[in-house]
Design goal:
mainly alpha, 0% strand, elongated, 4 helices, 87 residues
């Protein structure tokens, strides 16, 4: 398994969990499909640019945690903060 696969799979899992489980929206099947495609693309990119592909995968994970994907759905960090504050 490529070194970038773990962070990319986490991006998909966090996004899907935040939307479907935390906020009760129906499962958007584009997320797992895009996650699988991105993991494959990053694994291929890692053969030519190993350090850059891994760094970009970790950057994508950080951005996913901090930035809203959908305007109506809070970012995962916002959701966790609201949960811990009891909102």
């Amino acid at each position: 398994m490529a070194r970038s696969t773990g962070p990319i799979l986490l991006v998909g899992a966090i996004t899907l969990t935040n939307e479907s489980i935390v906020h009760g929206k129906p499962v958007d099947w584009r997320i797992p499909i895009a996650t699988g495609a991105a993991a494959g693309i990053f694994a291929l990119a890692e053969k030519g640019f190993p350090d850059a592909a891994v760094a970009l995968a970790w950057l994508a994970l950080g951005v996913t945690l901090l930035i809203r994907i959908d305007k109506a759905t809070p970012a995962p960090i916002e959701s966790m903060t609201n949960f811990l504050e009891g909102k």
